[in-house]
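re: that chain from earlier
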Amino acid sequence: MILPTALALALLPLALAHPVEKRALPPVNSMMDESVAQLALYLEHLELSLYTGGYENFTEAQYTAQGFPPGFRENVGVIAQHEATHAQTISTILTDSGYTPVPPCTYKFPYTDPTSFVDLANMITSTGIGAYLGGASLLTDDPALLTAASSILTVEARHDAFLRAGVGASPFPTAFDTALTAVYAYNIAQMFIVSCPQQLPLTILPKLTFVGPTPAPNLQPPTPAGTILTFSFDPATFFVKVDPNAPLYIAMINMVTNVTFIEATKVDAKTVTVPVPKGAAGAAFAVLTTFSGGLNETQLTQFGSLAGPAEVVLS
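^ sequence. v structure.
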């Protein structure tokens, strides 16, 4: 389902119909602050388009026919309003600090009904949460900017809990969420982008695709440790040449345990399998690598990634 910018902005007037009390917004004081804010805006544009489509493309009757509680669609519309407000606020922060905000893209989302929309929204919102968590440690120039970002992050987490509860999944499947580097969050967003008037100066990595198994829509029961996960990739797209006989690994990024390295079983030259590691839960992010361990997520991002990440929702 392709959503142009015009539709993605359809709910913006609703978000502005009841403006919050005008207050001073924090400045962007450095290039690092700007890069974090631009990525946040890039992802907010994506989420605004996603939730606008979830509201506009289905009726309340379609939601209730698939088991969602009364009023669920209206709350999807409220989430869209929140995303519009987030995007406008970040744009204003950047503009007031002398930077040009990154514009929206044109997006394509692979959902066909309310349930597949909500499953996709859980996945994308988990990525947004991860990006805000990953960016928090980089906002060191002004505590007020970190507070503003954190206030968005907590609302995003409530959005995700609402979505998960709507399909009968646990609204809080883990004690910790998973932080993502900017490059990894940016690459997950590329899955849904048709075209962009302006991209961010971040590396686009070779693609890693999660083949399966697909979890139940309500994520119950949680995917147990030892379950075999299948991933596909194209070695011709790797940035470096890899010996076909060299071992490959999936680095699984999950919660505060950070990165778990699992040696992959090669099915063929473009497919590998790995078991779910013990303790993995919630949203995990898989990266194909030749490293067997010893790297944290930042190092994996900088020089250890062959392809990825691919998001795997385990519970």
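The mean pLDDT is 91.
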